[in-house]
Amino acid sequence: MKKIIAVLAVAAACMFAANSAKAIEDQWSKGTMVAGAMVGFYPGIGGSITGDYVLVDSWWKGHFTVGAQINFRHWNVAPGYYSWNDLAVAPRATYGLNITDKFEVHAGVMAGLGVHFWSDGTGNYPGFCYGGLAGVRYFFSDSFGLQAEFNYSGYGPYANVGVAFKF
Q1: What does DSSP assign to residue 36?
Q2: Contacts 24+ apart (CB under 8 A), 132-135
Q3: Staple partner for 46: which of 39, 73, 116, 150, CB 3.0–4.6 Å?
Q4: What distance in Å separates the CA atoms of residue 162 and residue 149, rounded to the nearest whole number?
Q5: How do 45-59 and 62-78 pair as beta strands?
């Protein structure tokens, strides 16, 4: 019984000593911009260029961004027979949390226009693309980091990794 009381006392002391520790860091300030370039290999080969601007920095512990992205993907469906290329341009909105001062997670939505370009001559098909995204960023310095993002729209899923620059 004495051991249990001692362990509880130590746990309580540690809890009170760590009371000022933060579980989530402060959000990015309004006006912060983050630009990124990524390459992806699933499915097909492609890439994304993204840009986000922090519009609101007062929603709980996170930051709300608005921005845009351009996605391109080449998919060789049946080698020697046909392939297609996708190109999509979409505005996006994300909500991000800074888990540490270097690590940020975000999720959001996007909606825009896209085109499928078929290599077999059947035509090009423009359309509306919309979907969601989830990603992470890790900053090695105040302005440079790595990012990974998965997004899904009517133009297929994209899993990308690349670099991020914070201004």
Answers
A1: E
A2: 132/107, 132/108, 133/92, 133/94, 133/106, 133/107, 133/108, 133/109, 134/105, 134/106, 134/107, 135/105, 135/106, 135/107
A3: 73
A4: 9
A5: antiparallel
What amino acid occupies position 152? Y
pLDDT per residue, tens digit, the chain (167 aa), is 555 444 444 555 555 554 444 557 888 899 999 999 999 877 788 889 999 999 998 888 899 999 999 989 888 877 667 788 889 999 999 999 999 999 999 999 999 998 888 877 777 888 888 889 999 999 999 999 999 999 887 666 788 999 999 99
Per-position DSSP letters for 149-162, written without gaps between them: EEEEETTEEEEEEE
- Strands 45-59 and 33-42: what pairing? antiparallel
Lookup result for tokens 């009371």? 19
